[in-house]
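If your schedule permits, I should be very grateful for your opinion on a structural question. What I wish to show you is a protein chain and, alongside it, a tokenised description of its three-dimensional fold. Would you kindly read the sequence against the tokens and tell me how you understand this chain to fold? Here, with my thanks, is the record as I have it:

===
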Amino acid sequence: MSDQNSSDPTSEHAINEQESAVLSQRLASLGAPRPGVASIWQRRDASQAPVPETPVETTVAGEHASTPARTPAAAGSVGRLTRVTAAELWTDASAMSAWVAANAEAIAEVFGLEALRFDGPTAGADAVLGTIADGAVCVVCEVGRSTDERLGTLLRVAALQDGGTVIWLNGGPSDSHVAALSWLNRATAPRFFLARATGIRIDGSASAPLFELLVRPPRAADSTEERTDAPQRRVEDHVPES
């Protein structure tokens, strides 16, 4: 009968293999990254030197971390410009004249008038009276298309103030009225201006008035010899409609 304390070679070999497997697992776990440990180095091949991680770029909230922040234009922040009519800016001519009287600086800039000062709006009136550096000035307002009635108003104002400067603002000058004021500038003493009044807005913003100059008096540098009994219209005196 064999001794029970004698070792079995097959059993000892199996035990050694189990111990070797456990030891291999422990050694492998030592090389694995430990969870919860922050590192500024990327793990690369053992033969290469560690390389610092790429810094995170500034991003827009909600975008991928590797996507750079976009400019406002790329983000869709460019608005859309819309043209509006004079009737959408002012309910009637009296409302337009009230705005003109309160914005002398804007009118002076558009028409190149020095030391412009208005006497103040007249309730229910379609014209604003004032003065400039070299005489009297009157602004006649009309929110719709130009009419013969307002042209008559311009002539009456020019007669009452004995010349001076007369400005006609309306929502849509006709070709005949453009031609009439261009001719009057060459044949008479008063200085006539004509401008189309419209407005612009960006998206849902408030509308802003815009004045497009169509007729102006002759420049101060023009020779008086050019003024004849049968004046001729010049290209620079009549700006055609676009």
About this structure: The longest helix spans residues 9-31. The helical segments are 9-31, 86-89, 93-102, 104-111, 148-160, 175-187.
